[in-house]
Structure of Cilia- and flagella-associated protein 206:
Amino acid sequence: AEITGARLLYDCLFILLQTVPAVLHVAIPATMQHIDYQLETARSQVYRYTAILEKAANDPHMRAELQPYMLKEALYNIRQYEVFLQIILSDIITGAQEVEMMTKQLGAHLEQLKMTIKSKTAVPTSQVFPIFIALSTLWTSLQDETIVVGVLSNLFTHIQPFLGAHELYFPERAMQRHLNGATVKTDVCRMKEHMEDRVNVADFRKLEWLFPETTANFDKLLIQYRGFCAYTFAATDGLLLPGNPAIGILKYKEKYYTFNSKDAAYSFAENPEHYIDIVREKAKKNTELIQLLELHQQFETLIPYSQMRDADKHYIKPITKCESSTQTDTHILPPTIVRSYEWNEWELRRKAIKLANLHQKVTHSVQTDLSHLRRENCSQVYPPKDTSTQSMREDSTGVPRPQIYLAGLRGGKSEITDEVKVNLTRAVDET
């Protein structure tokens, strides 16, 4: 009966455990296909925005009509959308690898269980039970992967409308009108254009340049600004162009920078701090650039998602801790306790009797020869001092009296009156 039950359980487990992997093998490729299609659509929009901005940079009339600020904001937004889709796709690929590995382990455990109970009339529990435990663990892990794939698929579905919002601000007809005469280039095409233009190391004695053939793990270097050209971004007021590592990677203060052309590399190398400061100030005005360009080293309180998943957290600035203490007063307000208050009725009765008895008592005093005039007192008095002060001064001044005489006011025989004015007032210094 035991071996029959084990075989029956094996048949049920075989059917049940094969269901979830089959669902995942269908759901994961379908989700990846949708994400790949959406990524291509987003990248196509990025290339068109970049081509229009490059054309507007050389055409002042088009720049005044186009308002490049809005187009750059749209470029940053869709670049963020592209990065987010890449993160989702990377998580799904990781999940697909986990599912593939667990499927192989599941097949191995089922085959082991089949061989254990194949032709035996009785199987010890110690041989079968560990296999059932391992199958249970794999089943739980597959269920978790199913949930993760479902969450990522729902997340991808909910962010799809964000790409359609660009059509409201930049209609297709307006985009085609601005694209007339402009060349739309992909990121791969831009890299191929300058593949042969390489930095001459002899032109820079104090700077270190890295190249694929001379640097180990060249593809694993942590490039600043997510691989975008820092000089182009600073010189064109925020245009994002991918850098080309084949031109040469500049190592400056233990950080690595790529550029989209040889001229951009030479210009940046002349004064790196200047362009780094411009990028930092631009990111302060457009905060979405902090995560897009991975500026967590300039803004250390923010960390990119790609680095948060790493086990090594040496790049995170440690949180400073210190011991502190505070003390609160027991009674903040002044006390309002009435000390003379008594709630005990018998105590009040006792005090009342005491006061009544005091009114009936007479105080007597007795003075003896020993206590009479035992204390000697003396005092010193300062006699008043006669002093005088003068607080007012009497003085007078004589102002001369004005004496002015006018003659001829009564007129005469002639029609014109001749008036004569005589001033006989004495001067002040003569008085």
